[in-house]
Structures are given as C-alpha cells and as structure tokens.
Amino acid sequence: MNEHVVIIGGGFGGLAAARSLKDAPVRITLIDRRNHHLFQPLLYQVATGELSPADIASPLRRLLKQQNNLQVLLGEVVRVDADVKTVQLSDGHSIDYDRLIVAAGAGNNYFGNEAWQEYAPGLKTMEDAIEIRRRILTSFEAAERMTDPEEIRARLTFVIIGGGPTGVELAGALAEIAHQTFKRGFHSIQPSDAHIILIHSRDRILPTYHSTLSARATAALQRMGVEVMTDARVVEVASDGVTVEEGNQRNFIPTHTALWAVGVKASPLGRVLARSTGAPLDRSSRVVVEQDCSVPGYPNIFVIGDLANFADRNGDPLPGVAQVAIQEGKYVGRLITRQLRGKTLPPFRYFDRGSLATIGRGAAVAEIGRLRFSGWLAWQIWLFIHLMYQLDFENRVLVLIQWLWNFFTGDRSALLMIDTEQPSHGAVEAKYATDTGTWPAIR
Questions:
Q1: Helix 393-409 to helix 376-388 angle, to the nearest 10 degrees?
Q2: pLDDT tens, 137-159?
Q3: Residues assigned a catalytic role
C-alpha cells in the first residue's frame, strides 16, 4: 500500500507540496480549517474595497480536483502524536500518517499586548479584511452625521501601525479612498480631510528594502497626503486613540480606526509540535527545522512556510513570504518522491526572486537582485506578478477586470459594510417577540 502523506494547511506551501506529489506513489490527505485557498498578498485590497473576497479565494477542492491521489478534509488539527504517527482533529477524529507536512501559517503578533487586538485588528484572514473594511467605512459614515469638529477629526483619523509592505499598502489604499473614491457622495464632510498616519518604530519604512526605495516610498505616501512617523513606538492602543512615544515624549492621537500591520506569530501548531517532538521554537513560536525542512529527530515530519524557522546561509531565518512557502513546499514534495525511490536531495536553498510593494495607482517599489525600480515600472511589475501567481484562472480574470475598472474610474466596487456580529432581521424580530409577546407589524 502506498505511503500516506498528511498535509496540514492549504496555503501556498501546502498546495505547492500537494501538487509536487501529484505523480508520487503516495496517498495524500490535505487538511484545512477553511475550504478555500486565500491569496493573502491581495488581502489588503479586500480590506479597502478594491476587490471582493471571492476574487482572491479559491475552493481547495476545485484547485485540486484533477489530483487523483489526494483527498481534501475540512477540519482543524489540535494534536500531533509524533511517536504513534497520528494527528487529531478538533472533533476527536484521528488520522494516521507515514509522513507529515505542516504548513499551518501564522497570525498577528501583538507582542504581549493581546488586548490591543480589539481596537487595532490585524490583516491575516478574510474575516480580518472584512472587519477592517467595516471599520473604515463606519468611520466615514459616523463622521457624516456629526457636528463636533474634534469628533469629526477623530473619526477621519486613521492610524496604521507598522511600516512594512502591508502597512504601506494599507496607507496608500486609504489615501486613494479619501482623495479619489469618496471625492463625491458625502455632504457634511470632506473625505479628503482624512488624516492618515503610518507609524513605524524603526528609522525608515520598508526596512528590508534598500534605503533608496524606502525613501521613494515615503515620498510617494507623503504626496498622497499620508503622514509617515518613523522612530515612533506605540505604547497604548485604546478605543478612542493611540499613544505614541517619540524619544522621551508621548503623544495621544485621537482615532477610532487603528490598524495593526506589524509582527507575525506562528500558528499554535508550532507549540503542539514542540510538545510532541521536543523541537526547538524561536521567539515567534516558529519551529526551528533542519536543512531539509524536517523536524530535528523526526525525518518524516516537515514544517514549511511561515511556521518554519529555516536558517539561510547567513544564519538568518527566511522571511515569511509566499515565495519561501512555495519553494519549500515544492522541495519537500520532490524530497519525499526521491526518498521513496531510495534517493535523496541536497539541502534546501531559497532563491530570492525579489520584493515588491505597491503604494497606490501607478506607484510601487521593486527590488529584484541588484535591480531597483520605483514608480510606474515597478507598479506594472507588481501587477503582472500578482496576476500570474493567482492559482485560479477565473480569479485572474476577475482581479484584472476590477483593477482596470479602478484604474480608469478611481471607483471601488466592493466598498460594502458587512457586520458579521450584527443579528439578522429575523433574529431581531424573534427577540422582539420573545421580549414583548407580540410580533412587529409587517411592512
């Protein structure tokens, strides 16, 4: 009987591993707690209304329907028994494996300040994007109804914490909403009065890019009306504002919309694996893996993507980006295939294909090897790369259409407020009937 390979996670790494094993003599079970693959690099465009959720998400079963040696299961893994070779799902169901690939990803890291999450949501899941979009739109709608200038200013102040690619992209998109998309439609307020602040604790934004690109990104954001604060540390986030420390001075910024775009924390499965295998973890709870992406002492268990701490040639961990996960997934798939034939592969080596970050319409920065681009050319490269890496052809078409519409009109067709916590109309009627003993009149 063919060996059973269990893959946990249907993100970039998990899908790359599954597809790499397509022709291998194995049975594959891919487990994910969601039924879709999410193209996370474009998640900020859902949060800012340029794209709809379905534009960047594809059902896993559709993506893998042609792979006959693979089964997709909807479930959440809560336990791994490395000695017995089983994983246990949250519903109590256990699945045996011969080889295990863990690609469970990462979430937001609030560095011990978990209470801030309520007031400054991060951007890692589709639910996060929908909630951020709701908060952004709610702020403009609330300001339209107010008369107090100070309260209006607080409602129209948006604070993005973190000057990496996600923070820069969110800031640029918010500036476009305020100055272009909402140029008309409001009567009591001027959306262009929105005060967008990007806060970063280091001396420049996009610190992993060359300093010249950081400077150009800063200049581009400032031209769009974004205030860029560097060497500034957030020390408190509350429902009515953010406290920032610059040197020895603390300032309070009144706002009702703070967004978190700094730091990642590995999936809880990292700690689960550590308890079962004794694997070392880094400060972000990532599993420190061997040079073939395996867990130390367990050559049949592999960890890839954001959950893995893989040291490069300089001893530094690889960045948590899609390209790393994809290359690690393909490598592990090839390695397992070779091992089943009594062969092996050299240690994994990451090939850096470059870094890209978009700032706004016609503005981006790109670093590809020693080549550095900014402005229109970098933006075109960014568009092409993000279209080509969409795994579903239908999604490529949908995204391209939305981008073209936004480019020529400045409009965003997905600016819909969806409150997932608000009860439905039927639920409200049922509560009314329970409280009063009568039903409201049908209108």
A1: 150
A2: 999 999 999 999 999 999 999 99
A3: 169
